[in-house]
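Hi R.,

As promised on Friday, here is the backbone we talked about, encoded as structure tokens. Could you run it through your design pipeline when you get a chance and send me back a sequence?
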């Protein structure tokens, strides 16, 4: 398992002077500009705007890009160019996908679009689009394994990925707008088209029992609708997960509906997406039935992030995306990222042979919590816990599922708020989040939060203190050894913090001053 280095290079310790990267994605349905803060393992979008222009609406029946959509897109590209100038973005990449590579008037549109943007536009092939989608999943997930599906307006790319390598890939003419055009807006006819196309992909059975990663705006709308229907407490799209059977049942409901807004949760879907959503649900339903994956995981990362991933060095690509995000966030928001790294090693001492048990993934999440433990220090003391919980829960972190995200949120909440109120009663976490947290995850969050809370009381958030404080947890006690050089830091409040940790560990605490 990759863990954070226990030292920061001079370049890493300083605030990095990143060059922003602009990506213009001209798709068959949407046209989008995203500006990222730089070519790093966990990039942050600093601007994001899209228009559902529908360039490929009639590509099958006419062989041409829709003229009204062309003019609308060119007008939006003028705005994009102005935005790029205002943001002083010099590193700009522009790509165009299915509709532009197939339409008879595609070359003329690309020429006009390139003149407006003042950058060359790369028309990617179906297989290149699949590779970019795979890179996007590698950007957003830690060592993904399964089948990726990227559904656009004109095409569907399917990729088998494992061991960070592409095993199989194919591009199929099953985009939402294309299906509407090809089937004459008849969902029953579209089902025949989908079944025939998927039947030709013999390797789909390799996805049985694995994960299906769903990419693309239509499927994100599907997930958003499902979240709303089940009143899901964490409104974060990245890594939202459904069991295969649950996804099939919901997809069937949408497919059979006359209007998406009449299905529970449909009001949450943007009007511009409602037309293609039943066709996207159809494709998802047929894919799951044929592939038989265990889970469906929705991704906000796709070909745009895949393009940025392609720009990274091999060393940057190999970094853990979650730890990379947490380190970057600690540099921006905490008093000392070095102290966060010390906490990783210091809390390791609770998990020895006679101490607590944890899996490799739990250790990774604990280290992430240590790195994020001080990001709320500027907030008012009465609200640091609540504000930190909301920041972590809804942050742009990647390489983590929703259960891990809630664990981190709660651990940082308990680090600030403690585990007991003034009356000595156990604090409850937000009730809505409690619905999706197993007892083990909740208990671990309290322990990690209490350990970090005690460490911050001892070190005052500064490096060079806790790395000299010994911590031993065995079957009989929690032993804290404070060196003589820091003996004056001992006191009533510090002992209360360690008492709270010891209660959660169900062992007595002994604090000794080493002479």
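Update: got your reply. Pasting your designed sequence below so it's all in one thread:
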């Amino acid at each position: 398992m990759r863990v954070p280095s226990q030292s920061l290079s001079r370049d890493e310790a300083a605030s990095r002077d990143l060059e922003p990267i602009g990506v213009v994605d001209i798709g068959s349905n949407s046209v989008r500009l995203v500006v990222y803060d730089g070519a790093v393992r966990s990039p942050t979008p600093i601007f994001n705007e899209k228009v559902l222009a529908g360039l490929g609406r009639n590509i099958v029946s006419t062989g041409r890009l829709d003229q009204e959509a062309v003019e609308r897109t060119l007008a939006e590209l003028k705005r994009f160019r102005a935005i790029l100038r205002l943001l002083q973005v010099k590193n700009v990449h522009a790509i165009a996908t299915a509709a532009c590579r197939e339409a008879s008037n595609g070359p003329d549109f690309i020429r006009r679009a390139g003149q407006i943007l003042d950058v060359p536009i790369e028309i990617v092939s179906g297989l290149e689009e699949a590779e970019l989608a795979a890179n996007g999943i590698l950007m957003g997930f830690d060592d993904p394994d399964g089948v990726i599906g990227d559904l656009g307006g004109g095409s569907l790319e399917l990729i088998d990925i494992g061991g960070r390598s592409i095993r199989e890939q194919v591009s199929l003419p099953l985009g939402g707008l294309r299906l509407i055009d090809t089937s004459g807006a008849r969902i029953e006819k579209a089902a025949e088209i989908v079944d025939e196309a998927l039947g030709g992909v013999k390797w789909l059975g390799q996805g049985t029992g694995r994960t299906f990663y769903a990419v693309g705006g239509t499927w994100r709308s599907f997930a958003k609708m499902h979240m709303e229907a089940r009143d899901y407490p964490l409104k974060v799209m990245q890594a939202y997960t459904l069991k295969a059977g649950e996804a099939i049942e919901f997809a069937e409901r949408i497919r059979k509906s006359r209007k998406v807004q009449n299905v529970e949760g449909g009001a949450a879907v943007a009007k511009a997406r409602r037309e293609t959503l039943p066709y996207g649900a159809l494709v998802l339903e047929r894919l799951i039935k044929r592939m038989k994956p265990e889970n469906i995981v929705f991704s906000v990362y796709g070909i745009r992030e895949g393009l940025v991933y392609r720009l990274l060095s091999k060393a940057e690509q190999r970094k853990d995306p979650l730890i990379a995000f947490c380190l970057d966030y600690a540099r921006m928001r905490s008093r000392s990222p070095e102290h966060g790294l010390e906490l990783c090693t210091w809390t390791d001492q609770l998990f020895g042979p006679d101490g607590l048990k944890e899996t490799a993934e739990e250790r990774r999440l604990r280290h992430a919590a240590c790195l994020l433990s001080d990001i709320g220090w500027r907030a008012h003391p009465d609200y640091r816990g609540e504000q930190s919980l909301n920041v972590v829960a809804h942050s742009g972190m990647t390489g983590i599922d929703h259960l891990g995200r809630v664990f981190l949120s709660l651990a940082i909440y308990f680090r600030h708020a403690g585990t007991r109120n003034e009356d000595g009663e156990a604090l409850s976490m937000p009730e809505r989040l409690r619905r999706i947290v197993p007892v083990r995850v909740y208990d671990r969050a309290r322990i990690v939060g209490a350990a970090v809370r005690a460490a911050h009381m001892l070190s005052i958030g500064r490096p060079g203190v806790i790395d000299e404080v010994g911590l031993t947890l065995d079957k009989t006690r929690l032993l804290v050894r404070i060196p003589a050089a820091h003996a004056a830091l001992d006191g009533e409040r510090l002992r209360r913090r360690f008492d709270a940790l010891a209660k959660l560990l169900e062992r007595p605490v002994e604090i000794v001053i080493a002479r």
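One thing I noticed while checking it: DSSP finds 22 helices and 14 strands in the chain.

Thanks again,
M.
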